[in-house]
Amino acid sequence: MLSKRPGLLASILLLLLLTGCWDRRELNDSLFELGSGVDLLEDGTILVIGQFMVPTKSGEAGGGLKKPFLIETGVGKTAPDCFWDMQLKLSRRITRGHRNNIFYGEAMVKAGLSNFMDTVTRDPDSRLKSDIWVVKGGTALEFMQMSYPLENMPSIALSKIRHVIGKTTGNSLLELLVEQNVEGSGPTLPAVEIRYDPKLRKKSLQVYGRAILNRNQQLAGYLNRIESAYRLWITGETVRIPITVDLPNGRGRFNTEVNQLHASIRSAVKADRVEIDVDLKGSGVVLESQPAVDLRNPDDLRAFEDEMNRHIEKKQLGIIQKAQKQFKVDVFHFGQAVSRQNPKAWAQLNDHWEQVFSDAKVTVHSRVRIKRIGLQGPPLNKP
């Protein structure tokens, strides 16, 4: 009996060290922010918007509110000023640990995101898996006031859309932090826009593509949806891409979906000029063929493939040259390839890589093969 007393005494002492909810942050005292927005006002101040879940409404058919979410704003010269101004209007403490999306108005991105991103990364409640969006041609406030019929919380709709269209990472905050440490690389963010449908007579949200940022995190321009998909092929961040090829001389067009995507980059430095060779591979599935061609014929299938690969090479090269001449921002990780393959030369190129990238000679080779034609018997549109 005496031998058990030391263990009993130790157990009692350990229980004294256990604590409960020491800060009394109960769920009933918390307000969960699922989406944030940031706009730059004309007087130079910052407007921060928060979209919050209303607990008594979410998942219920009744209730006195028309929407299951609440929108509130805060204004200030710095982000902490805005957060405090917003908190003073709310009876519950704001919790950002469940935030899915952060939206930036175009004016804010043109001015630069570095200061505001400093605040976001210092906040222990910020999620690395939050998506960051640029509202092309609009404001975050206008965008966040829109409703979305398929989701109770509009803030989570765009994250789901990104996964549906084949984006594998889907966490822009983490992407942005990683890109800052990729040698020679310029960061990009997904862009969304508000579109008015004259047939349905309503506004709707739509993913536009990617917003290109320079090293100062200022907006340099945009890539549309298809251009963004081609870029992601090179960087290895997408699993599939739709391709529509118009045949020469008005002979029709065909649609394919290319998956099993792979890209390799080879670089060489010759007399202070960089040469970059991009090799693309993939497997294609024919979705539609408007010209009456029987793809069961090997010769027709090879001609079909050749036309598609020429289209891919021309399209991809045009996007790369757009980044070189218009944006002067390397969004393809070419600098990383040069650094890895030519480390001695990179030490001389790193400080002025933007100019070197703009003058680089780039070639693209596409080797996509059609694996499935999706057809039984002769084509139905063949006379």
TrEMBL record:
PROSITE patterns cross-referenced by the UniProt entry: PROKAR_LIPOPROTEIN (PS51257)
Subcellular location: Membrane
Membrane topology note: Lipid-anchor
InterPro entries noted in UniProt: GerAC_N, Spore_GerAC-like, Spore_GerAC-like_C, Spore_GerAC_C_sf
Keywords: Germination, Lipoprotein, Membrane, Palmitate, Signal
Domain spans labelled Spore germination GerAC-like C-terminal: 209-374
Residue ranges of domain Spore germination protein N-terminal in the record: 23-194
NCBIfam families attached to this UniProt entry: spore_ger_x_C
Family: Belongs to the GerABKC lipoprotein family.
Protein name: Ger(X)C family spore germination protein
